[in-house]
Each structure stands twice: as structure tokens, then as C-alpha cells.
Amino acid sequence: MLFGFSYIRIGITQVRPIKKNGFFRFGARVQGVKIDYDGKGLTFSKPIGYFFACPLTFDRVVAVFSSFSTRSGHGSRCSNELEVHSVKEYGVHNANDGYDRFRKTGPGDSGNRSFFGCPEGDSGYNPGSNFDNFDEVEDSDNSDDEEGEDGSDNDDFLVLSSFNRNSEQKDVRTFDGDEEDFRHPLVREICRLIELRSSWNPKLEGELRHLLRSLKPRQVSAVLQSQADERVALKFFYWADRQWRYRHDPIVYYTMLEVLSKTKLCQGAKRVLRLMARRGIWRSPEAFGYLMVSYSRAGKLRNAMRVLTLMQKAGVEPNLSICNTAVHVLVMGNKLEKALRFLERMQIVGIGPNVVTYNCLIKGYCQVHRFEDAMELIAEMPPKGCSPDKVSYYTVMGFLCKQKRMKEVRELMGKMKDGGLLPDQVTYNNLIHMLSKHEHGNDALELLREAEERGFRIDKVGYSAIVHSFCKEGKIDMAKEIVSEMFSKGCIPDVVTYTTVLDGFCRLGQVDQAKKMLHQMRKHGCKPNTISYTALLNGLCKSGNAMEARKMMDMSEEEWWTPNAITYSAVMHGLRREGKLVEACELVKEMVQKGFSPTPVDINLFIQSLCREEKMDEAKRFLEWCLNKGCAVNVVNFTTLIHGYCQKDDLEAALSLLDDMYLINKHPDTVTYTTVINALGRKGRIEEATELTKKMLGKGLDPSPVTYRTVIHWYCLMGRVDDLLKLLERMLSRQMCRTAYNQVVEKLCNIGNLEEAEKLLGKVLRTASRIDANTCHVLMDSYLSKGFPLSAYRVASRMFSRNLIPDLKLCEKVSKRLMSEGNSKEADSLMLRFVERGCLSPPAA
Fold this sequence. Notes:
Family: Belongs to the PPR family. P subfamily.
Strand content: under 5%
PPR repeats: 284-318, 319-353, 354-388, 389-423, 424-458, 459-493, 494-528, 529-563, 564-598, 634-668, 669-703, 704-738
Largest sheet: 4 strands, antiparallel
Shape: extended
Keywords: Repeat
Pfam families: PPR, PPR_1, PPR_2, PPR_3
Region (Disordered): 98-155
């Protein structure tokens, strides 16, 4: 029987569907035997004939015949021989279970389905899978069996020990992305069809399949790189790989890996590498480097470094490129020390670092603010035969600019020139933008002058950066001079430059000058945009002219500009600050009608303004209106309204609103409860405050420091110390507060209840910290002010017994009071304690 064989060889010449007994069955014309499958088993009969099976069965057999086609190129024929593994091994005898297993063997579903999951119809034979439902594109980490989290970090370095410096490295063809490839009609047409794939049918998919066979490898790579969604690119890659008479060129695999390296789809990149191995395509170290970068982007640093081990198991020798990738990954993962050790290991095995290696380490040093080490590394490069390039200096300069260390930036530029790296157009542009970004307009302008003296021409972007820097520094006159200079040099300012100056005038409160700048824009043919008008309206509102800003908004259609959400927000807050709440409310309604929703911050500020005017009912109606319109209302907005009711002493409305929050799924937080608890305590309704505190704890909310202070204040003020201690125990079991009892003692001292305060002193002195010492000092000072120096002496004695040293000056006051009252023994004993601990010199004999 066939089940006893491990494999047999069958020659196949043709596969086609054959209609038999009213049903389509698939037949494989074979040389040597005829194989029939009747649902129970396989039989052999005639020497030449067709192998028939139902579509589902044939689909499983196709999965077994994984070598059905050599696919040596476009239009390749089926192979003359096909190696068939045992039926027992693949489980053909179990129709359901076996088919499920076949789905898991390859990178995709091998069912007879179309590009979009539709029946094949007339579009021809298609062993491809459904494009949109391709399950392996989902990036799970379940298949990382060989990349567990066990092992030492030093294992990554052992891979370099097997480095053979005499090994030959193969050249890898890569796709450089020429514009002609992206503009090719076939590429653009396929990209268009992919975007419309959800509305396609099998017939149109057949056209896409026909176009695919006409594409050159570089054009397929262009299709992959043109996809905005990398998951779609990966789906298309797998779909194309399964098409009849088509085979991916190696350049396509490398392009797909490059695309995935820019994402977190590390599992997709790993499967592409596995597919390359199955197709017999040589995998270079750069291919593994793409996978390493993808792991790094996904935050899986250990898996990224273990790619080196995978590469070693695949028999691929490491080179400088993969080592640079490893250094980069370690630096990006904040593992600078490990990156330095990796560099040492590289040099030991004979892989010399290049400027890319050093630049990665320089960036790592700068990220941890070790600029001196970065400079030392730059100085070490020339003796090692690797001169620093402009990127080396740019990296350090950028971080120095952030730290506003301009003197060192200048010194670094001098070293750069001494090293033979003369600044070019790119150098000046980068430095000008860096300096301008960090508000060093004068230095940026000086560089601009130097660049122009050397014959370089700075464009309007560089000038605009300097103008923006001057405006941020408040040097509006300098900004105006730069704009005039731009006109004189034929560098016409654009809307960004004008808007920057206009905003600078508004920041200084010179709104009239800002209006003139707006007219000047129109005069020079530069049309103001929404940002320009928003800057002007914001300036008007800050200068107290919110109604004028509102009128300008009404004229927006005539001026051919459209307000955005920021515009509405700026004018609304201007009206609110001026107390024009009715107009502000109308503007918010208009804002929502135009499709812009106010933010929770906007809503909260408006509610605060209404509460200050004691217009609580209007504030509540406004909040309800925002909820009905679908605006983003959060718990802070409700808390603000509840606080307004509490300030107005309308506790019933506040409690009612607190209950309503649960009905609309806006759960109160600790701040909300604390606000109501404080209001209840102020009204003397301490029992209700206690129940509300317990309710808050029952909801799983942790009390905040403000909650502790609020509860302690009102309970102590009413003399309910015993009830307070019981409630504190429940609160402390929920959220620990180190200073809770300290606060109780100090509050009792403030209200004069010293007896209760001394009772709690034992709870305070449990830890004997500096905070506890301060609390004891408050109690001692309270006793002194009340005329009880003996009680203050007892507190100081308890502090000494807990190895706490009281304040010497305070104890001297206690000692003097004791002496004046005739308690010289206690006074001498107190000062003797200081002498014993070396805090005070003994009196002379």
C-alpha cells in the first residue's frame, strides 16, 4: 500500500480541470501510472492517464506537490518530475485536519480562491490566496521559537568569533528607486487596482494577474515601495508569489525587506527571509540587517540582536554592514556601553569600523549628554584611518545647539574646517536651521552672511527660519530688516515668512503693525491663509479686541479664507476673557455647526467662566448641550461644574450631578469626590462626608494627598479625632500616606488640641524620620506658647529615646522656661542629653 512508502516519483506533463458526471474534477496527466482517489484511498492502474480528484482534494494534493513547478522564470513550464512525500506524513486520509495543517506550512492559504476571496470563475487557474484575508500578515510574535528571552547578552558577540575575513561576499542587487520605474504605466495601473481591490471581481483580478506577468523585477519593487500601507505591500508580495508562471526576482525580496524594515512588522520580515531560504535565494547580511532594524522598531532589542545568531545558523558570514546595523540598534535601544563592547569585538575579529560605525556611537554619546566623549571619539578617528565626515560634526552640533552651548558650536566648526571639511550649501542650511530653531538668530544671521560671502545662496526657507527666530526673541525690527533684505536680493518672501512676522507683531501687542503686514502681503501678491488670519485674530483677542476679531470671522467668506478649529478656539477664549459669555456661547455653537468640536480644555474654561459669574444653570445647560452634540466631554468638565455648585453652597445639585455622572458613563475620579467631601465638611455634614469617602474607596479609587488633608482638616476642626482615626485606617489600607498622622498632629496643634496631639505622638515616632522631628517641634512649640514647658520637655525626651535629635535652639528655650519655673533638674537633664551626643560642649569647670 501507498501508506507504507516514504515517497515515490511521478512524472507530470499536464494539469487541467475535466468535467465528469456533471462536476468539475482535476486531472493530472502522468507518465508511468494513473492514480485515482475515491475518498477512501489511492489506487494505481493504467500506465498513462489522468489523476482525478474533487477540488478540495486536489487542493490538498497541490500542497503536497510543493515542487510542482521549477518556476525558473517568467513563462516557465512544469517540471518533468515531482517528488511526492508520503500520504501518511501529510495526512491526506483526514480531509479536515490535514487541510488545516497544509494551511500552516507555507506563507499563505493555498486554497483555490481569487485575489479578493471570490470564486475563480473564468479568470483561469489560480493557486493564490485571498489578498485581504491573508492571515500571516498579522504581526504576532508566537512563532519566535528560536528567539526566546533566555540567554546572555554576550551571546551576540560570540557570532563574530566565527568570522572569516577571507570569505567572499556576494554582490546584492538592490532597487534604487528610479523615477522612471515609479512612473511606468504598468506600475501606476497596478497601484490603482490595488487601491480599489475591495470592489474588484475575479475577472478584473485576472487582468491584474496578466499585468503582473508583464512587470520587470524593478517595476514590481516600485509597486511595493509605492504602497502607503506596508501591510498592503506585504499582502501583494505574497499574492504575487503564488501566481502561476511567475517568480519573484531576488531584488523583489530585498525590496520587501527594506519596506518592512521601516515598520514594526518584524514577523513579516522574518517570514520573507524564510521564504527566500525555501526558494534557494542567497541571503546576504544586509537581508538579516533589515530584520534586525524591524525588530528594533518594534522594541524587541534582544530579538534584534539574536538575528546575528540566526544569520550564523544560516551559514552567512557577518560583514561590516550588519555590524553597523547592530551598533545602530544598540544605540537606539539606549545600550551605549554594549555598543562599545560590540565595537571592540568587531576590531578583535578583524572587522574594521568605518565612519558609519563611529557616527552611530557619536549619536549615542550625545543622547546621554556625553559631548566630551563624542569629541574624543571624533579625535580618535583619523589615527585609526577613518576620518570624520560632516555628519559626525552635524550630530554633535545639533545636540550642542539644544543645550545653547554656542561657543562650543563655533569651536567645533573651526575643527571641522581644520579637518579639511569646508562648509558647503547643505552645511550652512543645516546650521542656520539648527541655530534658528533654538533661538540663536544672531548666530544664524552671521552664518548666513558668511555663506553669502563664500558664494552660496540661501533660499527663502533659511531666511524664514531666521525671521522666525527673531520674532520668537521679540526682535521684530531685526525680522523686518531681514524681510526687506529678502526683497532687495530677489528672494521674495512667501506666506510663511509674512505670517511669522505678523505673529511676532501680535506677540508684542502691536496689532496695528500686524494689520499693516497683512495689507502688505496682499500688495505684494501673497495671499494670506487661515494661519495668517488666525495669528491676527489671536493678537486682537489678547489685546482686548475680541469683538473686532469676531467681526473679521464673519467676513471670512468675503476675504476667501476659512476659519479652522484653532481660529474658533482663539476667538472664543478672547470673548470669554472679556466677559462676553453669551457671544462666546454662540460662537461655540457655530463652531460645532461647522464641524469643529471644542476640546475638553475649551469646554472646561468656558464652564469656569460661567461658574465665576455664578451662572450655574447656564453652565449645566452648556455641558448638556456639548454632550448631546457629541463633543469630547470628560470627568474634569463635570468636576468643574460640581466645584461651582459647591462654591455656591448648592450641595444638593452637586450630589445630584455626582450621581448623574454614573448614568452617562462618566465615572467620577478622586478629585471629584474630594471636592464634594470638602464642601460637606465645610457645611458640617461630617457623616455624609464619611459615607462619601467610604463610597469612593469602595469604587476602587485611591485617596490623594489632597483628600487626606481635606478629611483631616474637617474632622480635627470638629473634634472627631476617634472617627478620624477609624477612617484613616481604611484610607491607609487603600493608599499609603506617610505623613497622614503627622498632618493630624500638626492640625491638632494649630487648633489648640494638644492633649489629643500628644496621644498620637507614638504613631508619628514609629519611623523617626526628619518629617517626624518637624512634627515634634511643632508640638513642643505649641506647648511653649501655651505655657507648658514640662510637656515640651517630655516630647523632647521621647525624641531622644527614638534617636531623634531635637532642635537645639528650641530646647534652649524650653530649658530657660524650665529654669524660670524652678524645674532646674529637667532643664539640666535636657541639656545634658545634647552633651552626651556631642551636640554641645560641656561647661567649663
